[in-house]
Amino acid sequence: MADLPRSPTSPGAASPFASADEACEVIGGLFAALAADREQASRLARADVTAQFRLTDPDALITVQMHDRPGEPVVCGPTGLEPDVVLTLPAVVLHRLLLGSVNATVAMARGQISSQGPVAKVLALIPTLRLVAPRYRERLAAAGRTDLLESG
Question: N or C end of the chain: smaller count of CB under 10 Å?
Fold first, then answer.
């Protein structure tokens, strides 16, 4: 795996990502790697959802297809794909959710995450996000991104 760019933000900063490009490379790259791994792709496909993450601080748009169908699994930026679920949240919340240090249900109850889409699809997505935490940590560690591991 190529080294991921380093964010100039300090561990106490609001966002772990310096730009939308960095957020897309790190988070989109995670989902692309999972989709390329047969076992992980099968786990993602169980959710049977196209999820769109609308991030703030920095503003970024990441759409992930978690289906057992052909097609580009991850799109960063505007897309013609119709998401089943849209989650709007600060990048730091998604980062911490993927690290496993934030509970999605609690974050939704606190208003840190807003969701659009069928409740059944949102509920299918949440456990899938929990499953990726070990892989996210492994990717960050392999890329030498201790700054991101410590910001969770």
Answer: N
